[in-house]
């Protein structure tokens, strides 16, 4: 039987959950300061139960969108099969280029479900406001209940929106086997709380030193700094490695002297022979 079209209101009512696996995994790593362990990864069965609790008798669909590195295809197979066993459909895109993301695929699937069903509730598990902010607010204005499921540290666009509901992933019952050890600005204890560093301070010693103030470190940028009282202008060319290559000094343009007469240019200081 062909699917009914939902654009005219004749399709079945649907609650849709789309999960941005690369974004959630990257955000979780940032929050924890390290790669998540099995105990600190979200439990998709608990996420599914939470999602179902708000669906009533409507149809439901949960979809996980992920990238697959060629080197990790074998190890990800078990995870994908577990998701399917929990009732999720999985869309996998090979990660061959840096821009091989799944955001456009997620938006396309949402648009498809708008055509085939009457979309009543949409849950987007992603902190990516650049791609989802405006589409979600447009759907909310059209009558779709839109929820962003992510972490408060990154999903500011949803927390500030008057049209989008925000749910912190750690607030979903049973989503994690143990607390993540976060300190959230939105729920600070009365006595205050600590924000742990995301990496050791000594890691700074492994980085290139910061250039002095006033020197631009971007590639192919030329800066001009006034280094003398006489107004002599010295050009410096900054390379990607922040080295500075002096350029031959150029005498400044003579400035007006007393009585409006041009003052004689001051001679450049003699350069010491090597």
Automatic annotation (TrEMBL):
UniProt source species: Kineococcus xinjiangensis
Molecular function GO labels: RNA nuclease activity
Tree of life domain: Bacteria
InterPro entries: NYN
Location of the region described as Disordered in the Swiss-Prot/TrEMBL record: 249-274
NYN domain segment(s): 18-153
Stated name of the protein: NYN domain-containing protein
Pfam families: NYN
């Amino acid at each position: 039987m062909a699917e009914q079209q939902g654009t005219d209101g004749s399709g079945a009512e649907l609650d849709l959950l789309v999960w941005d696996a690369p974004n959630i995994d990257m955000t979780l790593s940032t929050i924890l300061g390290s790669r998540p362990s099995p105990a600190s990864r979200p439990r998709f069965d608990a996420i599914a139960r939470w999602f179902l609790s708000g669906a009533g008798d409507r149809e439901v669909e949960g979809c996980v969108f992920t990238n697959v590195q060629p080197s990790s295809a074998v190890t990800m197979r078990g995870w994908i099969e577990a998701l399917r066993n929990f009732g999720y459909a999985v869309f996998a895109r090979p990660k061959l280029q840096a821009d091989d993301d799944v955001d456009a695929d997620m938006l396309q699937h949402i648009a498809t479900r708008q055509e085939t069903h009457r979309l009543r509730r949409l849950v987007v598990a992603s902190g990516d406001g650049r791609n989802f902010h405006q589409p979600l607010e447009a759907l909310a204005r059209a009558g779709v209940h839109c929820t962003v499921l992510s972490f408060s540290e990154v999903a500011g666009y949803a927390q500030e929106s008057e049209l989008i509901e925000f749910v912190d992933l750690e607030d979903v019952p049973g989503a994690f086997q143990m607390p993540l050890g976060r300190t959230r600005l939105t729920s600070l204890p009365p006595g205050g709380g600590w924000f742990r560093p995301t990496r050791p301070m000594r890691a700074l010693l492994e980085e290139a030193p910061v250039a002095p103030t006033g020197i631009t470190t971007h590639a192919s940028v030329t800066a001009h700094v006034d280094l003398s009282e006489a107004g002599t202008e010295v050009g410096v060319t900054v390379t990607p490695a922040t080295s500075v290559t002096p350029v031959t000094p150029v005498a400044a343009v003579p400035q007006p002297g007393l009585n409006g007469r041009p003052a004689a240019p001051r001679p450049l200081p003699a350069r010491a022979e090597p």
